[in-house]
């Protein structure tokens, strides 16, 4: 089974960014690109909402009409999805991708991605979906569930595409982030991109040794690489470094073994995603 770049799209403002970053990744990795749209057909109106002082016959009539409305909504949602997929395919071809594919599924995004996980090399998603609140710091609830459930790299992207020229990895010496450094070193996705390695912590011998290993690994692979050890609160320190150095893409572990540990509301990973104005590549 060929692993592919899979891009999950809906009607949100992030869909264009998802399309363009997915096309960029597909071309760089020389991997097939598939767009995915999931139609959630869960009924919008529960039967319990109809309880009250109405006659049985009237109630049955209302239930029948609501059932017909649900069917109509599902058909409209499927047609909207087909149009979105068609537009995404056309956009990817314009970006240079040959023969991108598309899939439309019924169900939930989390369950669908779990079923397709073995086919995914890289998952590209927007920071929020069409049903999420439009506050710039709001994180879609689907995204948190997707990241918890997936064991593939996930690229969480902003609404507009910018070709990455500088990448920063939040490094803590864990197996996940060491694998992340090795991924940066060897992956064609990061060819020609300057790499920054940042450890948030004290200037200790162990941290210096970890940083030296990371920089040597990247430089041996031909990357321009620099790094820093900075004390401070993790998310604030990483964000400050990103802004100082005009970083275009951030790499971090969804789970780590130090202060970057849990993908829960209020954690470093979630905080980075909430405030991110650049793509964030999450590794497991």
UniProtKB/TrEMBL annotation:
<protein>
    <submittedName>
        <fullName>Universal stress protein UspA</fullName>
    </submittedName>
</protein>
<dbReference type="InterPro" id="IPR006015">
    <property type="entry name" value="Universal_stress_UspA"/>
</dbReference>
<feature type="domain" description="UspA">
    <location>
        <begin position="1"/>
        <end position="158"/>
    </location>
</feature>
<comment type="similarity">
    <text>Belongs to the universal stress protein A family.</text>
</comment>
<dbReference type="Pfam" id="PF00582">
    <property type="entry name" value="Usp"/>
</dbReference>
<dbReference type="InterPro" id="IPR006016">
    <property type="entry name" value="UspA"/>
</dbReference>
<feature type="domain" description="UspA">
    <location>
        <begin position="214"/>
        <end position="284"/>
    </location>
</feature>
């Amino acid at each position: 089974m060929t692993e592919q770049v899979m891009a999950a799209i809906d009607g949100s403002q992030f869909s264009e960014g998802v399309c363009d970053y997915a096309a960029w990744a597909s071309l760089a990795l020389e991997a097939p690109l598939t767009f995915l749209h999931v139609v959630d057909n869960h009924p919008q109106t529960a039967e319990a909402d109809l309880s009250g002082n109405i006659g049985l016959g009237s109630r049955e009539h209302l239930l029948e009409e609501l059932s017909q409305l649900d069917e109509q909504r599902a058909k409209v949602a499927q047609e909207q999805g087909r149009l979105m997929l068609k537009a995404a395919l056309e956009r990817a071809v314009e970006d240079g991708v040959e023969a991108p594919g598309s899939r439309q599924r019924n169900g939930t995004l989390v369950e669908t991605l779990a079923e397709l996980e073995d086919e995914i090399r890289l998952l590209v998603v927007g920071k929020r979906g069409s049903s999420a609140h439009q506050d710039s710091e709001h994180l879609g609830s689907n995204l948190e569930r997707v990241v918890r459930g997936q064991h593939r790299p996930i690229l969480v992207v902003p609404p507009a595409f910018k070709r990455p020229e500088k990448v920063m990895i939040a490094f803590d010496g864990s197996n996940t982030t060491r694998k992340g450094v090795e991924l940066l070193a060897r992956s064609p996705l990061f060819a020609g991109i300057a790499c920054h390695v940042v450890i948030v912590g004290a200037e200790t011998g162990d941290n210096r040794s970890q940083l030296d290993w990371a920089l040597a690994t990247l430089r041996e692979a031909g990357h321009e690489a620099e790094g820093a050890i900075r004390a401070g609160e993790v998310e604030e320190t990483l964000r400050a470094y990103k802004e100082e150095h005009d970083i275009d893409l951030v790499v971090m572990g969804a789970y780590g073994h130090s202060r970057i540990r849990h993908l829960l509301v209020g954690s470093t990973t979630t905080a980075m995603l909430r405030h991110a104005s650049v793509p964030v590549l999450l590794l497991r």
